[in-house]
Amino acid sequence: MKTALLTAILGLAAGAVSMAQTTQAARFEIPFAFQASGVQMEPGTYEVRRDGRLNSVSVTPLQGKMIYLPENDRSNKLMLGSPAVMAFHRYGDQYFLSRISFAGAQSQCVPKISKQEREVVWAKGASAEVILRRAD
């Protein structure tokens, strides 16, 4: 009985340690409105969480709606060894979330290009300027 209880406690502790290792969070101040996977997000402070168990990233403004994005790029080419970074494509005064990278993570989140971004690229015929925002 005591052995089973001790085993259960150790299992819960190991699970908590493993969960802590797979979750990362960072806070970003974004001074412009942007779109992420077709959802319009307003300027403000955002908390971004990476959940390695679910292979997803959540983007949550301090007030408002939360969106989930799949973690889908294992190349981790953006700012290796740097703090967390959100990258945006800018076309004139329109911004589109293009990538989220966490320090030390083996992957990064690259949202699918939205219909709105494709339309802007097609209409303007120009390439995007990349804007980087580092975590606070």
Notable features of this structure?
disordered N terminus; 40% strand; single chain; globular; 4-stranded antiparallel beta sheet; alpha+beta
Structure overview:
A hairpin with a 6-residue loop joins strand 8 (94-101) and strand 9 (108-109). 23% of the residues lie in helices and 40% in strands. The N and C termini lie far apart (48 Å). The protein contains 2 helices and 10 strands; from the N terminus they run αβββββββββαβ. The protein is of the alpha+beta class. The model is unreliable at 1-20 (pLDDT under 50). It has one domain (23-134). It has a 4-stranded antiparallel sheet. It has a 4-stranded antiparallel sheet with strand order 9-8-7-10.
Short précis:
The chain is of the alpha+beta class and 136 residues long. The protein has 2 helices and 10 strands, in the order H-E-E-E-E-E-E-E-E-E-H-E.
Class derived from helix and strand content: alpha+beta
Order of helices and strands: HEEEEEEEEEHE
Oligomer: single chain
Strand content: 35-45%
Low-confidence stretches: 1-20
Give the overall form. Answer: globular
Count of helix runs: 2
Profile the largest sheet: 4 strands, antiparallel
Order of strands in the sheet with most strands:
1-4-5-6
- Rg from C-alpha positions? 18 Å
Mean model confidence by pLDDT = 75
Write down how many β-strands occur, each being a DSSP E stretch of 2 or more residues. 10
Beginning-to-end CA distance, first to last residue: 48 Å
What percent of the residues sit in helical stretches (DSSP H or I)? Answer: 10-25%
The domain count comes to 1
